[in-house]
Amino acid sequence: MEYKLLHKGPFEKIDTFQKRLNALSANGWRVITSFAGGAYLVLGKEKH
């Protein structure tokens, strides 16, 4: 399993952040855990 920590930048628009998440999802990344207060996500991907 590979892990990636992802957070929304303070000046990043919600639409841009959603597009980035959708692109990662299309490449096999899935949310393992999330924290709304700090606005971060930990994504996991099966390693081939």
Strand content: 35-45%
Number of domains: 1
Biggest sheet layout: 3 strands, antiparallel
Report the order of strands and helices.
Answer: EHEE
**Low-pLDDT residue spans:** none
N-C termini distance: 9 Å
Helix content: 25-40%
Tally of strands: 3
Question: How do the helices and strands line up, and which of them pair or pack?
Answer:
Layout: E1 2-7, H1 14-26, E2 30-35, E3 40-45
Antiparallel strand pairs: 1-3, 2-3
Briefly summarize what is shown.
With 48 residues, the chain is an alpha+beta fold. It is built from one helix and three strands; from the N terminus they run E-H-E-E. The termini are close together.
Description:
With 48 residues, the chain is α+β, with helices and mostly antiparallel strands. The protein has one domain (2-45). The chain has one helix at residues 14-26, and strands spanning 2-7, 30-35, 40-45. Strands 1-3-2 form a three-stranded antiparallel β-sheet, with no helix packed on it. Strand 2 and strand 3 form a beta hairpin. The longest helix has 13 residues, at 14-26. The radius of gyration is 11 Å and the shape is globular. The mean pLDDT is 85.
Task: List the keywords.
27% helix, alpha+beta, 48 residues
